[in-house]
Design brief:
The structure holds 2 protein chains of 2 kinds. Chain A has helices at residues 65-73, 95-98, 115-125, 130-143, 159-171, 189-206, 217-223, 241-246, 251-258; strands at residues 27-36, 39-49, 54-58, 80-85, 88-89, 101-103, 177-181, 209-214, 226-231, 234-239, 261-270, 275-279, 284-287, 297-302, 308-310, 317-327, 330-336, 344-349, 359-363, 370-373. By secondary structure, chain A is of the alpha+beta class. Chain A has a 6-stranded mixed β-sheet with strand order 6-7-8-3-9-10, with helices on both faces. A 5-stranded antiparallel β-sheet of chain A has the order 13-12-11-14-20. In chain A, strands 15-19-16-17-18 form a 5-stranded antiparallel β-sheet, with no helix packed on it. In chain A, a hairpin with a 4-residue loop joins strand 12 and strand 13 (284-287). The model of chain A is unreliable at 1-19 (pLDDT under 50). In chain B, 74% of the residues lie in helices and 0% in strands. Chain B has helices at 2-6, 26-32, 34-65, 76-81, 84-117, 120-131, 138-149, 154-161, 175-199, 203-211, 216-244, 248-253, 261-270, 275-311. In chain B, 27% of the residues are buried. The model of chain B is unreliable at 1-21 (pLDDT under 50). Classes of the chains: A alpha+beta, B mainly alpha. At the A-B interface, helix 2 and helix 3 of A face helix 10, helix 11 and helix 14 of B.
C-alpha cells in the first residue's frame, strides 16, 4: 500500500474518482423510507453511487442524513425501499453480514484492547492468518502515521489519534463500502482540516466507495465527488459540489451551501439565454434562464462572493453600506437597500472595500444569479 | 461475638497524619500548626472508630488464638483447626462458598443482563424487587425457603404435578438446600454489582463490532464479556467471601455434612466455651479472605500484562 502523503487539494472532479480500478463497489438506494410514529424521518430517498465515489449526505440536524446512513448500514430497518451493493440486495441483511466499514463520531475503539488488537479484530473475524494480520496491521498503522502506537490502549491516545485508528479499523478488511457518521465532528478545526485531507487521499488512492455524513458544508465541499443535500427527510439535490454551488435547484440549497442573498422581484421576460427580473428594491437584473412565466414573483439568489460593488445606480440595485468587517484578504460588507429589507452580504477584495455609510451600486454576472419562484420554500 | 470475628474485612488503614518528609519536623507538623491540629481533630473520630471496632477485635482474636490455657504462646489451636474433622469442615465451607458464588454469578448475570437492557425506570422497579428481600430478616427468608423446598413444599408439588421423573426431590438438609438458600441471600449483591458494570458498557461498542462483521456470539465473548469481566470477578469474590462466614442459612437448611466453619465457631463458643479454638478458626477464615483478595488482584495484573505483551 502506498504511504500516505499529504495530497494537494483535489482538483474539481466529476463522478467516479479513481484512476485505477476502484476497490469499492457501487451502491444504489431506491425509495428508502422511514417513519417514527407520525414523523417522517426519511422520505423515499433514492440515489445511485458509483464504485469508488465519495458521496456526502449534507444537511442540518433532523434532515434524515444519519437515519439514511443507518439504513444503509443495517442498524435501522427501512419501512420500504431497497439497498443494493454491487448488484446484490442487502436490505434485509443484518449489519454484520453486509461487510461494510463504519466510522463513528465517537471513535468506539474497544477499550479493553490495544490499538493492535483493535485493528486485528475484524481480520480475526475473517479468519486471516496470524502472520498476515501482523503484516496488515503494521502496514495500516504505518499508513496512518501511528506506527509506534500498536501497544497503546485507546484511552492513552488523543481524540485525533483515536479517530485515525478507528479509520484504519474500518479500512483494514477492505470493505466494499465505507460509511462515516460525522467522524471529525468531535475534533478541533485544525485537526479536522488535516484529517479531511488524509481521508480524501486514502479514498482516492484505494478507490474506496465512501458515504459520509456531515452538517459542515465546507467539509462536504472539500471531500466529496457528489453531495446529497438533505432537508426534512428528503434529498433536495444530489450533485457535484460545483453544480450545487453554481446551479442550486432550491433556495434551501442556495442558502445552505452558498449562503446566498435573496432579492425579491418579478419576472419581466425570459428566454433560453437569460431571465429578466424587475427587483422590488432596484432596477433590472439579468439572471440564468429559468422556466418561469413573466409576471411571476421570484427571488434572485446571489452568493456573497459573486456580488460586486460599483458606482451608485450603475448596478441592478443601490444601497448603503452598514457594516465592514476585515477577514484577512477579504472584506465582509453588509449593504441595505431599503429600510425594512434584510442586510445583503458581500465579500469584496480588501483593496476595493467601501466604507460605512457609502452609497454603492451592486452588480453580478448573469450566470451567477439563480432565480426561484417566490413561494418556493427554504 | 463469633459473627464479628469472621466478618469479611477490607483492609483499611487509618491515615492519621501525612507522611513527614523530614523526621525533625514530625512533631511540629502533627501538632505545631493550627491547621494540623484541626486536621487531627477531624480524623480522630474515624481513627477512634477503626481502633475500637476494627483493630482491637482483630488483634484480640489473634492473641486469643495464640494463647494456651495457662497463657503461654502456642500454635496448638491452629493445628487443631487445620486437622481432622475441622479440616473437612473447612473444605466443606470452601466448596459450598464456591458453589454459591458460581450459582449466584450465573443467575445474577442473567438477571443483571436483562435488567441492563430495560429502560431505566423499569430497571429501577425490577431492581427493587431483587433488593427488597435483602431487607427482610435472613431468618425469615430461610424459613420461607424451608417451606418452599420441603418434601411436600410448593417446589416439589409443582415438580410432581408436572410429572418430572424423580420428583419429589430432596432439597432440604443437604448441600442442594444450603446452596439454594445462600445463593438467594447473595443474589442482591451480585445483581447490584453486575448491573452497575453492565450499565456502564457502551452499547455502541457492540454495534461497532457488528458493523465489522462480528456475530452475536463473537460480540459476547470478545467484547461484552471482557468489558464486564472485572465486575464478574468482584461479584464472584464478594459472594464467596460473604458465604465463607455465613451462618444462619447453612445451619438451618443443611444437614450434619454441611456444617460450615461459622457453625463450628458458634458451637465452640456457645456449647464448649472454647474461645481459643474458635479464634484460631476465625483467623483462618480471615486469612482465606485476604488470600482471595490478593489472588484477584494478581489475576488482574497478570491479565493486563499479558494483553500488553500480546500487542507488541
Amino acid at each position: 500500500m502506498p504511504d500516505l502523503h499529504i495530497a494537494d487539494p483535489a482538483p474539481a472532479m466529476t463522478t467516479a474518482a479513481a484512476q485505477t480500478s476502484p476497490t469499492g463497489k457501487a451502491l444504489s438506494i431506491v425509495g428508502l423510507h422511514k417513519t417514527y410514529g407520525s414523523a417522517v424521518a426519511v422520505d423515499s430517498a433514492s440515489m445511485e453511487i458509483a464504485a469508488g465515489e465519495f458521496v456526502t449526505f449534507l444537511g442540518p440536524s433532523g434532515s434524515g442524513k444519519t437515519t439514511t446512513l443507518m439504513m444503509v448500514a443495517g442498524f435501522v430497518e427501512p419501512d420500504s425501499g431497497t439497498v443494493t451493493v454491487g448488484g446484490r440486495d442487502v436490505t434485509r441483511l443484518a449489519p454484520q453480514k453486509r461487510g461494510f466499514g463504519f466510522v463513528f463520531q465517537q471513535y468506539l475503539l474497544f477499550p479493553h484492547m490495544t490499538v493492535y488488537e483493535n485493528l486485528a479484530f475484524p481480520l480475526q473475524l475473517r479468519g486471516v492468518a496470524k502472520s498476515e494480520i501482523r503484516r496488515r496491521v503494521h502496514e495500516a498503522l504505518e499508513m496512518a502515521g501511528m506506527a509506534g502506537f500498536a501497544g497503546r490502549r485507546p484511552r492513552e491516545l488523543s481524540g485525533g489519534q483515536q479517530q485515525r485508528v478507528a479509520l484504519c479499523r474500518a479500512l483494514i478488511y477492505r470493505p466494499p463500502v465505507i460509511l462515516m457518521d460525522e467522524p471529525l465532528g468531535a475534533l478541533d478545526k485544525k485537526l479536522r482540516d488535516q484529517l479531511q485531507v488524509e481521508i480524501k487521499a486514502i479514498q482516492r488512492e484505494l478507490g474506496l466507495t465512501v458515504i459520509y455524513v456531515t452538517h459542515d458544508q465546507e467539509e462536504a465541499l472539500v471531500l466529496s465527488d457528489r453531495i446529497a443535500v438533505m432537508r426534512d427527510g428528503g434529498i433536495d439535490q444530489f450533485d457535484t459540489p460545483r453544480e450545487l454551488f453554481e446551479r442550486p435547484r432550491t433556495p434551501f440549497v442556495a442558502d445552505f451551501l452558498g449562503a446566498a442573498n435573496f432579492l425579491p422581484g418579478r419576472v419581466m421576460k425570459g428566454d433560453d439565454d437569460v431571465t429578466l427580473v424587475r427587483l422590488d428594491h432596484g432596477g433590472l437584473l439579468t439572471a440564468r434562464p429559468h422556466p418561469i412565466r413573466p409576471g411571476q414573483p421570484v427571488q434572485a439568489a446571489v452568493q456573497p462572493g459573486r456580488l460586486r460593488v460599483c458606482a451608485p445606480d450603475q448596478g441592478f440595485c443601490t444601497g448603503t453600506v452598514e457594516t465592514v468587517t476585515y477577514v484577512g484578504t477579504l472584506v465582509r460588507t453588509g449593504v441595505r437597500l431599503a429600510e425594512d429589507t434584510p442586510l445583503l452580504r458581500l465579500e469584496v477584495p480588501a483593496g476595493r472595500a467601501p466604507v460605512t455609510g457609502e452609497r454603492v451600486g451592486l452588480t453580478a454576472d448573469a450566470e451567477d444569479i439563480n432565480v426561484f419562484p417566490a413561494d418556493a420554500d427554504g | 461475638m463469633a459473627g464479628s470475628l469472621v466478618r469479611p474485612a477490607t483492609p483499611v488503614r487509618p491515615h492519621s497524619a501525612p507522611e513527614p518528609s523530614r523526621p525533625r519536623g514530625l512533631r511540629h507538623r502533627l501538632v505545631g500548626t493550627r491547621r494540623a491540629r484541626i486536621g487531627l481533630l477531624n480524623v480522630s473520630p474515624i481513627v477512634l472508630y477503626l481502633l475500637v471496632l476494627f483493630v482491637f477485635p482483630i488483634v484480640g482474636t489473634l492473641l486469643l488464638s495464640l494463647k494456651n490455657a495457662d497463657g503461654s504462646l502456642t500454635l496448638h489451636w491452629y493445628a487443631e483447626a487445620l486437622s481432622g474433622a475441622n479440616l473437612s469442615v473447612l473444605f466443606t465451607t470452601l466448596r459450598i462458598s464456591a458453589e454459591t458464588s458460581l450459582l449466584s454469578l450465573a443467575v445474577g448475570f442473567v438477571l443483571a443482563n436483562a435488567l441492563s437492557r430495560l429502560r431505566p425506570i423499569w430497571a429501577g422497579l425490577v431492581m427493587l424487587i431483587v433488593v427488597v428481600p435483602h431487607f427482610i430478616s435472613a431468618l425469615v427468608r430461610t424459613y420461607g425457603w424451608i417451606i418452599l423446598l420441603g418434601d411436600h413444599g410448593l417446589a416439589n408439588q409443582t415438580l410432581t404435578g408436572l410429572k418430572i421423573p424423580g420428583a419429589p426431590f430432596r432439597m432440604l438438609y443437604n448441600e442442594t438446600g444450603v446452596v439454594i438458600g445462600t445463593t438467594a441471600v447473595m443474589l442482591p449483591y451480585t445483581v447490584l454489582l453486575l448491573y452497575g458494570v453492565m450499565r456502564g458498557v457502551d452499547r455502541r461498542l457492540l454495534a461497532a463490532a457488528a458493523s465489522m462483521g462480528a456475530g452475536r456470539v463473537r460480540i459476547f465473548v470478545r467484547i461484552y464479556l471482557p468489558l464486564v469481566a472485572s465486575g464478574l470477578a468482584s461479584a464472584g469474590l464478594l459472594s464467596f467471601i460473604l458465604c465463607l462466614g455465613y451462618y444462619i442459612t447453612p445451619a438451618l437448611m443443611g444437614g450434619t455434612k454441611q456444617t460450615m466453619v461459622a457453625s463450628l465457631i458458634n458451637d465452640q463458643v456457645m456449647k464448649q466455651d472454647q474461645w481459643n479454638g474458635a479464634a484460631a478458626q476465625g483467623v483462618v477464615l480471615l486469612l482465606i479472605t485476604f488470600a482471595g483478595l490478593l489472588l484477584l488482584k494478581a489475576a488482574r495484573s497478570i491479565g493486563a500484562g499479558a494483553r500488553k505483551r500480546s500487542a507488541s
